[in-house]
């Protein structure tokens, strides 16, 4: 499968890693939308949050544990945003589940 985030997870394509364990990788986004912009992905291929099921949801819970730890390390004590884009209307460009952890600035709502 020609998936750029699978290649990053497998080490085929380099990334600026923030955290890694057996099931999860976190790395800096190439196009940061804030002073801190980190992507957190499952190493196994899940196309998007629309594909989360009882069979694979454990890694998603783990991702949120990892995210909380990263946010503390990054000293995002004033808050931050975690977002996942789904499909065309959601603005998803990479079809491998990823959570954007963005912080270090005031976020707008509603999102554009
Ligand atoms: P989304 O639009 O939600 O699918 O977000 C995809 C994000 O992935 C986007 O913010 C840019 C980032 N991105 C795409 N290719 C690469 C890459 O090769 N390396 C890194 N670090 N980030 C990438």
Secondary structure elements and their pairing?
Layout: H1 4-9, E1 17-20, E2 24-28, E3 36-42, H2 57-73, E4 80-83, H3 87-90, E5 99-103
Antiparallel strand pairs: 1-2, 2-3, 3-5, 4-5
The protein binds 2'-deoxyguanosine-5'-monophosphate (DGP).
The site of 2'-deoxyguanosine-5'-monophosphate (DGP) has 14 residues, from strand 2.
Overview of this protein structure:
The protein is an alpha+beta fold. 24% of the residues lie in helices and 22% in strands. It has helices at residues 4-9, 57-73, 87-90; strands at 17-20, 24-28, 36-42, 80-83, 99-103. The chain has a 5-stranded antiparallel β-sheet with strand order 1-2-3-5-4, with helices on one face. It starts with a helix and ends in a 9-residue tail after the last strand. The model has no long low-confidence stretch (mean pLDDT 97). The structure holds 2'-deoxyguanosine-5'-monophosphate (DGP).
């Amino acid at each position: 499968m020609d998936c750029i985030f699978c290649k990053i997870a497998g080490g085929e394509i380099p990334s600026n890693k923030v955290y890694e364990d057996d099931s999860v990788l976190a790395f800096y986004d190439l196009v940061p939308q804030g002073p801190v912009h980190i992507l957190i992905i499952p190493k196994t291929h899940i196309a998007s949050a629309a594909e989360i099921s009882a069979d694979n949801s454990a890694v998603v819970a783990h991702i949120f544990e990892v995210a909380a730890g990263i946010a503390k390390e990054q000293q995002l004590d004033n808050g931050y945003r975690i977002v996942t884009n789904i499909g065309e209307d959601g603005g998803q460009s990479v079809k491998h589940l990823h959570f954007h952890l963005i912080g270090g600035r005031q976020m707008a709502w509603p999102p554009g």
